[in-house]
Amino acid sequence: MVNKSSSIPLYVQVKSILKDEISHGHYHPGDKLPTEKELTSRFDISRMTLRQAMNALVEEGLLLRLKGIGTIVQERKLEQTLTTLKSFTEDIIERGMTPSTKVISFQREKGNLAAVEKLGLTLTDELWVTKRIRYADKEPFSIEKNIVSAQKLPNLTKEIMNHSLHNHIKEEGYKMARAKTTIEAAIPSEKEKELLHIKDNSPILIVERITYLSNGEVIEWSVSKNRSDRYKFTAELRGEV
Predict the structure, then answer these.
(1) Cβ(181)–Cβ(207) under 8 Å?
(2) Which residues contact 2 (CB under 8 A, 6 or more apart)?
(3) Is 14 among the domain residues?
(4) Residues with Cβ < 8 Å from 231, sequence gap 6 or more?
(5) pLDDT for residue 241 is more than 60
(6) Angle between helix 10-23 and helix 36-43 axes, rounded to 10 deg
(7) Helix (H, G, I), strand (E, B) or coil at 71
(8) I want to staple 21 with a disulfide (CB 3.0 to 4.6 A). Which of 26, 97, 124, 225 is the partner?
């Protein structure tokens, strides 16, 4: 229960209680929360105080308001920062989830104009082109296409792509220094909806990343199509000091 004699605002206390109940499984993703009347009665607070708490949880992405339905617990989103160069595998493990991958295709191809532009190669250079689905706790989060130079990574295999490309790059002696990332929203195709288990008209987030080595050369070009209901990207911007 809330402590009305505490210096901590009531809405903060209610927010903390509900957040703790969500994190400990009292409420699960998709569950509908009790009505305002039930919650105000439970906590012995005003509707204004309750709405402050609920608004804060909505802003944090823990709750979702649906017209005609009520307030439900939101699926947990995977937040990825754009200030640190991490692989999908590293990011998922750090969040206490289990990553897995399904390789849809793995091919060695001739160079093309796009690869010349993105990877700095020639049309005679060969590429490894992989398409795969990335999972977190067995749930599909993204469809990813990776293009790398077969000359730089001659030992790449389908088995390696079932795990972590970035680990292989490091094991081959390369040091990844930075990446350029662009993000845009798009409507998924029917096939993409099927692969990502999207059941409504939610958009996907297309993330294109060019990864550079410490010597300035490009080591990887990737394009991933991510579920917008499970992914969000954050970046910290600093002004001039």
Answers:
(1) yes
(2) 10, 13, 14, 17, 43, 44, 45
(3) yes
(4) 77, 78, 80, 141, 142, 205
(5) no
(6) 110
(7) strand
(8) 26
| Pair (26, 86) in one structural domain | no
Q: Which residues contact residue 116 at a Cβ distance below 8 angstroms, ignoring those fewer than 6 apart?
A: 122, 123
User: 23: helix, coil or strand?
Assistant: helix
Q: How many domains does the chain have?
A: 2
* CA–CA–CA angle 51, 53, 54 (5° rounding): 60
For the full predicted model, state whether its pTM sits above 0.90.
Answer: no
Residue 176 lies in a domain: yes
Decide if 67 is inside a domain: yes
Cα 25 to its chain centre, rounded Å, is: 22
Per-residue pLDDT tens digits for 83-138? 567 777 877 787 777 889 999 999 999 988 888 889 998 888 999 999 999 998 88
Instruction: Compute, in degrees rounded to 10, the torsion defined by CA atoms 132, 234, 95, 162.
Output: 10
Determine the 3-state secondary structure of 239 from DSSP. coil
Does residue 111 sit in helix, strand or coil?
A: coil
Full domain range(s) for residue 88:
78-234
Tens of pLDDT along 155-213?
A: 999 999 999 999 999 999 999 999 998 999 999 999 999 999 988 888 898 999 999 99
| Bridge partners, residue 232, by sequence | 79
**CA-angle at 29, arms to 23 and 32, nearest 5°:** 105
